[in-house]
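REVIEWER CHECKLIST
Item 1: Sequence provided? yes
Item 2: Single chain? yes
Item 3: Sequence as submitted:
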Amino acid sequence: MKLLPGSLLWRTLIVMVAALVLSQVAAVYLLHQLVTQPRMRTGIGQFVSHLKTVSAALQTMSESQQGEFIARIAEKEGIRIQLTRNTERLRPAADVPAVRFFRDHVREVFGPEAEVYVRASEGRPGQVLWVRLPAGAHEFWVAFPRGRIDRDPATAFIAWGAVGLVIAILATFFIMWRLTRPLHELARAAEDLGKGGDPAPVEVRGPTEVRALTHAFNQMKDDLRRGERDRATFLAGISHDLRTPLSRLRLDVEMLDGKVEPEVQRGMVADLGDMNAIIDQFIDFTRAESSEPLVPVNLSELGRACAERAARSGATVRCELAEVPLLMLRPLAMQRLVDNLLGNAEKHAGGEILLRTGVAPGEVVLSVLDRGPGIPEAMRERLKEPFTKLDESRTGSSGAGLGLAIANRIATLHGGRLDLRTREGGGLEACVTLPSTA
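Item 4: Structure as written out by the authors:
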């Protein structure tokens, strides 16, 4: 099971977030130890000293002065002071670090019996602390907000961490978006090129390494296209130059009636026909199918037209055509694909050929089935390569070994695939599978 996603963006984001979380934890710990606690201790010491001053002041005042002093303290500092009546329902405050430190300071100043309390009847117990304060002949309760001795930094730390995390995520997304966008364009162009297309040059942008990669890809694409053009020119030139002498030979052979045995003459005519078929394959192979525009095509209707054309040439073709959705295809290229498969089946198998179409989830399938000797499984992928033949597997050895290569290239150009399978009951099934959005 993969623990990390495959995307560069998400992997980088996970690493950045993990590093940020660890750094935040370390920062919070150091801040608590080196800043928060020392400041808390200093503040508690100052507040206890202030309570000591209040106690001393109350001892020197008359009752009227005490009332005025208590009111002024409550107004300015939010500290409530009242005489003890022994009817208050109080309990010791929770033993947390700030309260513990405050209690120790209070006991150092007011004696070991001093304690910090909370009132159980309050709406939020623990938010107000109470301390018994001796002042001469009287004792007073001093109530003050807990924030005077214990400022909970959790909210600030959470907000700090959340803001830092959001900033890190946004920065990571921005950086990786700038980095991966040209990589995605490269991937799309490489996929298009691998399918036989001719993608536009990828814009050179991004970091230095990505720019170098993009430049190298564009150069590779140009070199491949130049090599393909040179090869196509070479093959087309040879094919064109051979047409004229072959036509003259065909004419000469036709004029040999009565001068040679009829079987010899027919063999010579058949050989010349094979040579013309090879030249036709060369010309087909040099065509650039990617330049043909995509249009909506009914694959069953295209298959029917190809079958009728093959039947007029002498092949026996039976059709089993299903209702299929329209596909965006290059019709001449697809016609060339079906013609090559039918021609291969008629040449190497003979007998009845079955052309079948069907629909699968997200796919449309076209199959050409024959009852020939078939192809060994180990050789099926190799026979899709140009100029590859397996004479032992099929009857007849004519041809340049380009028919399956042309069909495979056209299927790949349309985002599909060509599979060679053993037909049930014997023979070969050439199956073309094309993606469908219907």
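Item 5: Key structural point noted by reviewer: The domain at 35-152 is CATH 3.30.450.300 (Beta-Lactamase).
Item 6: Recommendation: ____
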